């Protein structure tokens, strides 16, 4: 965090100080989550549907926060504003303005934002100090928290930008304007919120609309709805993909017995060999996007290829492969799920199993709208097609439909209603040597179960 006095913060957000020393400094994280407040930080009291952040103000101060950004005086050091969320956004704008040389990269898409952000962060770190926090704080409340991690020597800032409505990304880019914008794909995530893929494309394209003429729009040439966004930006357009027409592309892709891909990275700056440490052939386009971003800042292709080849998983629950002390290989891809990522994960599972028993633990995929049933049935068919040996579905009727589709095609299947029942079923069924994939929407809670199994903890105990 850039050190800022309370007087400077109040001026930036249009607030007034109450019970606070104007010269006191905020030197730590600016967060809306009272559980992660750190000494020297700032706590943002956001109103919520179930709880009001103002109720945790005293707790935040006791945890070390210097001040609370609040909508009313609270009897603790506070900067009072009319709208705390809007003020939080203005604070993010002010922080970035204090580092004028900062190169900002925005990443959006229906699938793969976090992994791509993590890859970009690791590649750009080879060029200079880079702020690219793990996880996916990508909303109007989460993005400012990530911005607050910028330091005086930060050269790059990589931000994930999510959307549930048209206009969400336009708002985020109005707070922090990227120099480079990456659009990965237009899928069906949050289709229930948007209503159509066309609306999703409209929302995702707001990122490239925000770019300046000297910026770069990095677009997936293999996704027609993304490629069409080239006409929506004043920036230079750089495409990535597997096809010959892509500016940055992968040639001669090979996958080894551990599920890791290697390829020739072909770019206008030349070609280089890349061997990913990340598991899954489907992550090759993510790596290409990261390379395309890096090429905006450097023409050192050897450095880019080396950084991609050494990049490791950063954010929890995204294709993390762990050898459990109990003898299982655990693939923790349980942070979230959609039809495309489910399909990719299942293909990786059976590739990695390579003769061992392939077990898939799949929760429902939420927010798919009218296509939800068909999407779940389709994933069940994929499970059979790729050769899953045993399938455990967890959650609602959509998850059960997925299991029935697989069972009709010959896959041994069981359905349970929740994570606790899944734990019991796995304790009965798993054997050393099994390769076990966990994937589903985050609300199903499979990530905790994957973590437990990966640690070698006995599933029969709580």
Topology diagram in text:
Elements: E1 4-5, H1 6-13, E2 16-18, E3 25-26, E4 30-31, E5 42-44, H2 57-62, E6 67-70, E7 78-80, H3 84-97, E8 103-108, H4 113-124, E9 130-131, H5 142-147, E10 156-160, H6 168-175, E11 180-183, H7 191-194, H8 197-204, H9 206-209, E12 216-220, H10 224-227, E13 236-241, E14 248-255, E15 260-267, E16 270-279, H11 284-297, H12 301-310, E17 320-323, E18 329-332, H13 339-353, E19 358-363, H14 372-386, E20 390-394, H15 397-408, E21 412-416, H16 419-429, E22 435-439, H17 446-454
Domain Mur ligase C-terminal: 317-441
Family: Belongs to the MurCDEF family. MurF subfamily.
Protein name: UDP-N-acetylmuramoyl-tripeptide--D-alanyl-D-alanine ligase
Tell me, briefly, the overall form. globular
**What is the spatial order of strands in the main beta sheet?**
9-10-8-11-12-13-14-15-16
Report the biggest beta sheet as strand number plus sense, adding barrel if it closes.
9 strands, mixed
State the end-to-end distance: 39 Å
Name the CATH homologous superfamily of the largest domain: Mur-like, catalytic domain
CATH class wording of the largest domain: Alpha Beta
Output the radius of gyration.
23 Å
Overall mean pLDDT score?
95
Number of domains: 3
Q: Note the total helix count.
A: 17
Explain this structure.
With 462 residues, the chain is an alpha/beta fold. The model has no long low-confidence stretch (mean pLDDT 95). 35% of the residues lie in helices and 22% in strands. It is built from 17 helices and 22 strands. One of its GO terms (biological process) is cell wall organization. Involved in cell wall formation. Catalyzes the final step in the synthesis of UDP-N-acetylmuramoyl-pentapeptide, the precursor of murein.
